[in-house]
């Protein structure tokens, strides 16, 4: 079982390290085909990728934070993530067929 940390943001990596969050593999972008049943994926994924990893039997923890409009599109450091209430939240995402 592998713990994946999916982020391209140095601030997120530093924030996770400050909180003692451990991972086995860090990649900036996820290929869901690499994830196996029983794996854990941490990051802020688009919903279709979160659904794909959940369908493979992996757990998904979203790196969530309360982001005001003026911070969107900016690189955030670990201190800003702390101030904005960054946290890991477990989700199960399932694609529903029409």
Strand content: 15-25%
Average pLDDT, rounded to a whole number, is 95
The SS-based structural class is: alpha/beta
Distance between the termini: 33 Å
**Discrete helix count:** 3
- What characterizes the major β-sheet? 5 strands, mixed
What is the overall silhouette? Answer: globular
Topology order in helix (H) and strand (E) letters: EHEEHEHE
Radius of gyration: 14 Å
Helix content: 10-25%
The residue ranges in which pLDDT falls below 50 over 5 or more consecutive positions are none
Number of strands: 5
Give the neighbour order of strands across the main sheet. Answer: 2-1-3-4-5
Description:
The protein has 98 residues and is of the alpha/beta class. Helices cover 24% and strands 22% of the residues. It has 3 helices and 5 strands, in the order βαββαβαβ. It has helices at 10-18, 47-55, 78-83, and strands at residues 3-6, 25-27, 40-43, 59-64, 87-91. Strands 2-1-3-4-5 form a 5-stranded mixed β-sheet, covered by helices on one side. β1 (3-6), α1 (10-18) and β2 form a beta-alpha-beta unit. It starts with a strand and ends in a 7-residue tail after the last strand. The mean pLDDT is 95.
